[in-house]
Amino acid sequence: MKRLKQLLLPFLTLVLASQVCEAKRPNILFIYTDDHTHRSVGCYPESYDWVSTPNIDQLAKSGTRFTHAYIGTWCMPSRATMLTGLHPYGCESMRMEGDYPGSAYDPEVLPFWPKVFRQNGYVTAQIGKWHTGVDTGANRDWDYQVVWNRPRYIENA
Q: What pTM did the predictor assign?
């Protein structure tokens, strides 16, 4: 019986510790917009006087607000940088080429960070525009995806 307790104690400790870690895992909402100034969001000190963004401001109070984030000037290179963590010049395989919406993106060469979140039990979603070609990462990087500039049913396009 003593031997059984000695074997079970580390196992139960590990199980309980993993449940505690699971409970402390944060929810992550990453809002990314491109082509606008930080002055158009009220939570930044330099925002325009006429700006009113109470919901975003509340999220910023309870979350993380980036104050020194710099990114490319175009939407697709900016998005590639945010999804891969590489500077635009490092995202060589993620570019528009050929007939629109062709893309040379190779997910094995340049994986997106949401894939890592999925592999660790998070549910991921991408909602909004996507200008990186035909491969949107659905069911690989994202559990749910709604792309505003794409038809819901490709066969009806």
A: 0.63
Number of separate domains in the chain: 1
Choosing from 21, 36, 75, 91, the catalytic residue is 75
Residue-wise pLDDT for 97-150, tens only, equals 555 455 566 777 777 888 889 889 999 988 887 765 555 666 778 888 887 766
The helix/strand/coil state of 11 is helix
75 catalytically annotated = yes
Which residue has 């409970």 as its token pair? 23
Q: Considering the domain boundaries, does residue 116 fall inside one?
A: yes
Residue 3 lies in a domain: no
For the question of residue 131 being annotated catalytic, the response is yes
Assess if residue 56 is contained within a domain.
Answer: yes
Whether 101 is in a domain gets the answer yes
Distance of CA 156 to the CA centre of its chain: 29
DSSP 46: T
Instruction: Report phi then psi at 142, rounded to 5.
Output: -125, 140
